[in-house]
Amino acid sequence: MPNINEIMTEIHKLVGKLQMNQNSGLNIEIKADQPDYFCCFIENERLMGEIVVNKGGFQPFRNVSFTIVTSENEEEEHPFYYCYYDDETSSMEEIKSNLHKGMRLF
């Protein structure tokens, strides 16, 4: 089971790579970047996503939430496009894999 520091390191690497890629067409807005809490919004012309890393508490995930929805101008029956929540059994490899899987959708 990874600790919050390992997860934060991976999140910073991933978001940093995205921010450096000027040709990605993504708008990335970091809302919070604290030692035990990170939140950012990612969007392009058709999808909006939110990554939250939190040190636990009252939430439906252990540390990581990654949700992607279709944008308002899409006429989708179901707005959720991708959703990942880690849990007590999630390994660091599983978390990394799901973060990268979600980012590939953009």
Which characteristics define this entry?
alpha+beta; 5 strands; 106 residues; 5-stranded antiparallel β-sheet; 2 helices
Describe this structure as you would to a colleague.
The structure is a single chain. The protein is of the alpha+beta class. It has one domain. It has 2 helices and 5 strands; from the N terminus they run αβββββα. It has helices at 4-20, 92-104; strands at residues 27-34, 37-43, 47-54, 64-70, 80-85. Strands 1-2-3-4-5 form a 5-stranded antiparallel beta sheet, with helices on one face. Helix 1 (4-20) packs parallel to helix 2. The protein is globular and about 35 Å long. The N and C termini lie far apart (28 Å).
How do the strands and helices of this protein lay out in sequence?
Layout: H1 4-20, E1 27-34, E2 37-43, E3 47-54, E4 64-70, E5 80-85, H2 92-104
Antiparallel strand pairs: 1-2, 2-3, 3-4, 4-5
**What is the spatial order of strands in the main beta sheet?**
1-2-3-4-5
First and last CA, distance: 28 Å
How many domain modules? 1
Question: Using only CA atoms, what is the Rg?
Answer: 14 Å
Global shape? globular
Helix content: 25-40%
Instruction: Report the count of strand segments.
Output: 5
Mean pLDDT figure: 88
Low-confidence stretches: none
Strand content: 25-35%
Helix count, DSSP H or I runs of 4 or more residues: 2
Largest pleated sheet: 5 strands, antiparallel
What series of H and E elements makes up the topology? HEEEEEH
SS-based class: alpha+beta
